[in-house]
Design a protein that fits this description.
- This protein has 166 residues and is of the alpha+beta class.
- The protein has one domain (5-70, 82-165).
- Helices cover 26% and strands 22% of the residues.
- It has helices spanning 16-19, 25-34, 38-49, 60-65, 116-122, 150-153, and strands at 5-7, 69-71, 86-94, 127-132, 135-140, 143-146, 161-165.
- Strands 1-6-5-4-7-3-2 form a seven-stranded mixed β-sheet, with helices on both faces.
- Helix 2 packs across helix 3 (38-49).
- The relative contact order is 0.21.
């Protein structure tokens, strides 16, 4: 069981859009890593990834590689003090099986991908959006923010891609 774990659904709160959603791991990962509310992240993913409500986000890694910054918009309200601003996105790499250089340095004999747990341990400062097989999650200052069912066995999944949020 992970001690550095937080339920990624906490970002949803009482959001009406979130109550009707499923297959929204990319929305929650972006909301948690970028420190914005669920509605703003939902709007961004719908616009940039052409995501349909209730459907999975397709081509996550391919589209994320082309995003250098995210400009979040205020949705449904007027903000007199400015919006949440621009978040810079930096692609850190892909797993070795996908031809990338994001590898766990503990293994000297061959190129091995980070597990979620090892990635969180090594990159424990800053916010990250992490892609694993058919899923996305956020790691914020070493705390894994994911579905609650992954608290017990999800830390062993290999990291396929990672993005730093600044």
């Amino acid at each position: 069981m992970l001690k550095n774990f937080k339920n990624g659904y906490a970002v949803c709160g009482n959001d009406e859009t979130a109550k009707r959603e499923k297959n929204d791991c990319v929305v929650r990962a972006i909301a948690n890593a970028c420190n914005v509310d669920y509605t703003q992240a939902h709007h961004f993913v719908k616009e940039k990834f052409n995501r349909k409500n209730g459907k999975a986000t397709l081509m996550f890694n391919a589209i994320m590689k082309g995003i250098k910054e995210i400009q979040f918009k205020e949705v449904g309200q007027l903000n007199l003090f400015g919006g949440p601003g621009v978040k810079k996105i930096q692609h850190m790499g892909d797993m070795p099986k996908l031809g990338g250089n994001l590898r766990n340095p503990k293994y000297k004999h061959k190129k091995v991908a980070f597990t979620v747990k090892e990635f969180a341990r090594k990159f424990n400062k800053g916010n990250y959006i992490v892609g694993v097989h058919s899923h996305a999650l956020a790691i914020c200052n070493g705390v894994i923010m994911d579905n609650s069912n992954y608290q017990y066995d999800g830390y062993r999944r290999p990291v396929e891609c990672a993005y730093r949020v600044q």
